[in-house]
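User: I'm putting together notes for a lab meeting next week and I want to include a structural view of one of the chains we've been expressing. I don't have a solved structure, so I'd like a prediction I can at least talk through. The sequence is below, exactly as it appears in our construct file.
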Amino acid sequence: MHQNLSSRPTRTIFRALLLTTVLIAHQAPLMAQESKPNNAAVADDASKEKGAEKKEDKFAVPADASPADLLAWIAKTKRIPPPRDAMAETALKMFPALIQACDLVVEKSQNAEELKKAIEEKFSAYSVLVRFSPAAIKDLNALAEKYATDSNPEIAQIAVGHTLMEKAQKLGDADAAIAQEVSDAAIAFLDRFGVNKGTFSTVSRVASSLGYSSHNEIAAVAHEKIASILEKSEDKILANRSSKLVGAARRIRLLGNEMLLTGVTADGNAFDWESYRGKVVLVDYWASWCGPCIGEIPNMKKNLERFGDKGFTIVGINMDDTREAFEKCVENKEITWVNIVSEEEGKRGWDAPMADYYGITGIPTAILVDQKGKVVSLRARGVELDKMLESLLGTE
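Assistant: Thanks for the context. Below is the predicted structure for the 396-residue chain, given as structure tokens.
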């Protein structure tokens, strides 16, 4: 799993459950013994029954509550982690309850913000519920169709954005025509609803999904088109994000082409990229705070030991915010390969020059360059790295 620049909406079922989870499922009360119990046993059974009822009540929607209190109940309920051994059971109780609470808000409220929030929460609940109850997809699609033409553009945006994301998440091995359709839909989405934090979040995720498809040129063009729209935004923060999209397009087009690398190494010397020609180089974007980055280090070391004598080497692009964090990690993890480190104010972390140039918004990002300086993989981690090195450098 990547560590990302922005806090994206849930993309996996596990993260969705962390954000929209429930209390432990109701436990049935113990049955009374066949023989007549003594008073203490009766009291004990009654106490257990009350405890079970109390747990059950935590799943019950407070139907008489105000819209504001219902929204607060939704927020509270979905923050509670589910039991690991009862995720499906829990989901099938909790998400319908959330949907019911959302319906009550819509029924009771005349407040535009409350209505928007309730509908947003309803889409989120359905998006996870369908993973456990596929039949719910009909209700979800009906919900999207209902609100896609809503008179409130913010509500319509939620519905249309949901449909767009569903299409993007199903790209997988889709053909070029479908990928192009999704790309066109993302641009149309921006044209209809304009540039705001919600539309940016949606189209950036769509662009990312396209980037993981096999249709590199369609994905690159989509990034560039979205960037051209963003850069005209009056929201300076969003306008500035356009450079990341342009950089991402540049990175997507790297396959089969040469990669540019410049900067200053950790020891203060200018990085000499030309000196690496003739070697197979793993260009690893990483940071000490990135768990998956650190988790990949043993595999990188293993491959260095295995293929180092055959011409394999590593160049790190460090994205820590401080030199101290970088150096501590290098020492603790015994990292021996060269790292490009930016210490210029305002150009560290996600804004490091080489990270910005290639639109890096999630790490680890591992790019493999062959002996001729051509990029052969944009996802050279784990088994992918092992296989690519065997192909390029042979086996023992």
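A couple of points you could mention at the meeting. The chain has 16 helices and seven strands. The first strand starts at residue 3 and ends at 4.

User: Perfect, that's what I needed.
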